Amino acid sequence: MTLVDTRTPDPKKFIKGATGDWEIVIGMEVHAQVTSNAKLFSGASTAFGKDPNANVSLVDAAMPGMLPVINEECVRQAIRTGLGLKAQINLKSVFDRKNYFYPDLPQGYQISQFKQPIVGEGEILLDMPGGEQVTVGVERLHLEQDAGKSLHDQHPTMSFVDLNRSGVALMEIVSKPDIRSADEAKAYLTKLRIILRYLGTCDGNMDQGSMRADVNVSVRAPGGAFGTRCEIKNVNSIRFVGQAIEYEARRQIGILEDGGTIDQETRLFDPVKGETRSMRSKEEAHDYRYFPDPDLLPLEFEQAYVDGLAHDLPELPDDKKARFINDYGLSAYDADILVAERASADFFEEVAKGRDAKLSANWVINEFFGRLNKEGHDLSESPLTAAQLGGLVDLVKDGTISGKIAKELFEILWTEGGDPAEIVEARGMRQVTDLGAIEAEVDKIIAANPEKAAQAVEKPGLLGWFVGQVMKATGGKANPKAVNDLLRAKIGIE
Ligand code: ADP
Ligand code: MG
């Protein structure tokens, strides 16, 4: 890869060392498991959590004479992902053998793509907190096989091999070295994961290994020449990526400030200690002896096929966010929260349809998502439907219920279910907008507290106490504005 610096150094991101400021440079290689029922070159299942070696065909076990046959669905998913990353789609690409020995790699090589990947340059847009927009270049995306897994903890003297993952399709998505902080790296992974999930091309489950990141980190004098990088392999959570970068940058700065040099090497992150440690140096690096796999023809398809896939792509998070801001008048902050998952965005739109969008967004984000979070529920496990929440929003909007009563109604809908309007009628939760009734309560409270009322003329802050009393007396059902207006008039507050 030819390294090009696309970023202007930003002092806010510099790390202070003993000798001056340092800038971190990061590039990521993300392995994303393709969502597909079968493996890349065999018909074996990709289902997670099966007994060891339950999902293994003769091809995956590399039995002599077995031939790989490309799974079209994996190709389709890779192209769709490329389109989602606004990337160049290569109508011709080549599968190569990447040769190395490992007990869980029965072929003795991994089928990957080296010089001619299926997807070329693209980009990912990051919206950082504080409003900064960062564009991270994507260098390429290629298809490759996953390896199996060695199990060292099953027997005191033996290791076992599980080939369930062997041959599962991965997309390796390689970024340019455009990332300049741990926060940007986390935002990059988060955004990539969102895009993949929108497209349905990878489930993004990092705890099941469906998405892992190799994080390349170097440091340099701000704006200077790129430094020597270390690659931290297989980091499997977004939080760990951040921790690994912070640690690794500090480690490199320490060495350089002591007059040392950085050895290009592969390192591992230890989440318990919060440290990276050396795995192998450049000298020990493999020479993979790549060559085109003679069992496979070059992969070729027509532009019309790509155009068809482009046409059927779902609306992606950046477009959805822009639409939510423009069409619904939402803040960027609220829009970000709503578009983080396709299902959340759909839920919001169902609630907001034909209703006050901002009010709907408030209820969806604060009460509804807040409650789902608190209970550790996924949206799919919600006891509340968009129609029910929409009904509640209607009742708030037309003044049938007060905000306070709406929270009680939400609780009832959440725990018991039912139709919002019917519940309000059946349980007498309507807001009292009958001014006569409110006035009677106001008069009663003032009459019972003449001294306080006199004080309130001087100290209008006391008004809140009176409002509270009236609300209490009406079971929270009085229209708060009417209560306020009446109290001010009767007590004589300007
Ligand atoms: P290789 O194929 O040898 O692993 P590449 O040049 O393809 O190396 O780069 C791999 C990853 O390392 C890319 O994500 C790239 O952005 C990143 N990278 C390259 N040089 C640097 C550097 N000096 N600092 C940080 N990341 C880098
Ligand atoms: Mg690499």
UniProtKB/TrEMBL annotation:
Keyword check for Transferase: yes
EC number(s) recorded for this UniProt protein: 6.3.5.-
Residues of the Asn/Gln amidotransferase domain: 346-491
Any one Gene Ontology molecular-function term assigned to this protein's record: ATP binding
Catalytic reaction list: L-aspartyl-tRNA(Asn) + L-glutamine + ATP + H2O = L-asparaginyl-tRNA(Asn) + L-glutamate + ADP + phosphate + 2 H(+); L-glutamyl-tRNA(Gln) + L-glutamine + ATP + H2O = L-glutaminyl-tRNA(Gln) + L-glutamate + ADP + phosphate + H(+)
Pfam families found in the cross-reference section: GatB_N (PF02934), GatB_Yqey (PF02637)
Keywords: ATP-binding, Ligase, Nucleotide-binding, Protein biosynthesis, Transferase
Top-level lineage group: Bacteria
Biological process terms in GO annotation: glutaminyl-tRNAGln biosynthesis via transamidation; translation
Subunit structure: Heterotrimer of A, B and C subunits.
PANTHER family membership: GLUTAMYL-TRNA GLN AMIDOTRANSFERASE SUBUNIT B MITOCHONDRIAL AND PROKARYOTIC PET112-RELATED, GLUTAMYL-TRNA(GLN) AMIDOTRANSFERASE SUBUNIT B, MITOCHONDRIAL
Functional note: Allows the formation of correctly charged Asn-tRNA(Asn) or Gln-tRNA(Gln) through the transamidation of misacylated Asp-tRNA(Asn) or Glu-tRNA(Gln) in organisms which lack either or both of asparaginyl-tRNA or glutaminyl-tRNA synthetases. The reaction takes place in the presence of glutamine and ATP through an activated phospho-Asp-tRNA(Asn) or phospho-Glu-tRNA(Gln).
Entry's family note: Belongs to the GatB/GatE family. GatB subfamily.
UniProt name for this protein: Aspartyl/glutamyl-tRNA(Asn/Gln) amidotransferase subunit B
Lineage: Bacteria, Pseudomonadati, Pseudomonadota, Alphaproteobacteria, Hyphomicrobiales
